[in-house]
Amino acid sequence: MKHHHRLIFKALIDAVKWHLIVRNVAEAVTPPKTRKVEMKTWDNEQVKIFLDVSKDSSYYPIFLTAINTGMRRGGVLGLRWQDIDFDNNIIYVRQSLQEVKKVGLTFKEPKSGKSRSISITPSLAKELKKIYKQQLTDKHLFGQGYQDLDLVFAQKNGKPIQPTEMARNYRKMVETSGLPYIRFHDLRHTHATLMLKQGIHPKVVSERLGHSTIGNTMDTYTHVLPK
Questions:
Q1: Which end of the chain is more exposed for a tag (fewer CB within 10 A), N or C?
Q2: Which 3 state secondary structure label does DSSP give 188?
Q3: Rounded Cα–Cα distance for residues 93 and 60 (Å)
Q4: pLDDT of amino acid 67
Q5: SS3 category, 106
Q6: d(CA 15, CA 24)
Q7: pLDDT value at position 227?
Q8: Chain centroid to CA 18
Q9: What does the alpha-carbon distance between residue 180 and residue 43 come to, in Å, rounded to a whole number?
Q10: What is the pTM assigned to this prediction?
């Protein structure tokens, strides 16, 4: 409702400026206050429990990457091999996989509108290299039937992973773990929260998350910053 009010308010401001109307009636309306949804995250121990339970899931590398990088779901599923620098252990977020109604799966630029780099740990790099070796085997098995989109996380035939299927498995893994449920997107918040609690500078966290300003990061995570 608040968003619609902003759109109408701006449209009528332009209409007054262009002498189409004499008054912006949206000025007489008080929009509702924004209600902040309480952020839910896991602590270090809960993260370990979840990763241990989901170890045998085919989506485990996706969960691991999301937790270790703070990338959005679309960014993880849209990650390509050309976007990974294994020499320096850096991931470049350059595209996002999105599910669009009546269109299907499509690739778009990141939500921030620009690419960014994220440093990764040697252990995560090792897991990603395992996937690369497995994909070489899959390419050999499928031959011309393999759809090579250069995706890091793909189906056996190379096609993009269905976000809804992955999300369904994620929910199942959380239920199996017995942990309090948090959304897949909350793995991003968990990553940021754990970094800030460890004393990592908010500017570093902000750049990893792809926030436009450090103020955005501070507003979102002030409650977890060390005193």
A1: C
A2: helix
A3: 20
A4: 97
A5: strand
A6: 8
A7: 62
A8: 41
A9: 11
A10: 0.83
